[in-house]
Structure formats: C-alpha cells, structure tokens
Amino acid sequence: MKIRIIENPELADDDVIVECHALTSEIQSWIQKFHTEAIVVSSDDRDVTLNTDDVLFFETEAESVFAHTSRDSYRTRYRLYELEDKLPNTFVRISKSAIVNINHVAAIERNITSARSIQFFDSHKIVYVSRMYFPNVKKHLDERSL
Length: 146
Prior knowledge:
Radius of gyration: 18 Å
CATH class: Mainly Beta
Number of strands: 10
Number of domains: 1
Largest sheet: 7 strands, antiparallel
Structural class: alpha+beta
Low-confidence stretches: none
C-alpha cells in the first residue's frame, strides 16, 4: 500500500481521498482510526457528548441503555438495535443486552459454567458474552490482531 500526501494551500478545507483496488479490512481499519464519532448521553440532569472511542460497552439495564466508559456510565436515548446500526464496526453485539467496543477488550475468560466474561484494559468492569454471539466476537478479535 502506498500513501501519498499532497499539500495544497488553495484548499479551504482538508480533503482526504482513499483510492483503492478493493476496500479491504486493512483499509477499513485505517479509515476507522481517523473517523471518530460522538454520542449524546445523560449524566445526572445534563447532556454530555461522549466520544464513541471512549465507550467500553453499551448495556441494557431496566428498560434503559447505558454507555459504560472505564470510570462512569451514562444513560442513552437509544435502543441497542439503533446503536448497532449507528456505531462504527469496532462495536460488536455480544448478547441480547450488550454491545462491546472490541478495541477495549483485554481478555475473554471462560468460567466453570462455560459462561464467558469480557475484561477490559484499564477498567474493573466486566460484561458477559452469550454462547450464540461468541463466534462473531471471536472473529472480530482475530481480525483485530492481524
């Protein structure tokens, strides 16, 4: 892969063009790194804009969906299926009640009952993967490590 940078002082705004034979997972990964998104969430009585890169996972709890960061959790206005459609491809469904940011996954641990728990970098939080969604989660983790 070749990368060319051409400076043009006549441009009003920066313009990045990706020209490729085929859109590979490597190219998608590069694009994803430069494309950050934000989501509006609630904390106490105020709305907060949260960068999706900072979100470890989204989880349904008592009819509400919460965005979990390494330290806090925030209520969202969305349903999980809406988030699944809106979020970048680094977010993967892990159960009927949770979506995880695969970039923050440090380990997946299997316990005696064969349930799998996800542990995150720099956080004590844990979320569980259902058996039905595990193959897809494993596939995304394998792609991340290439």
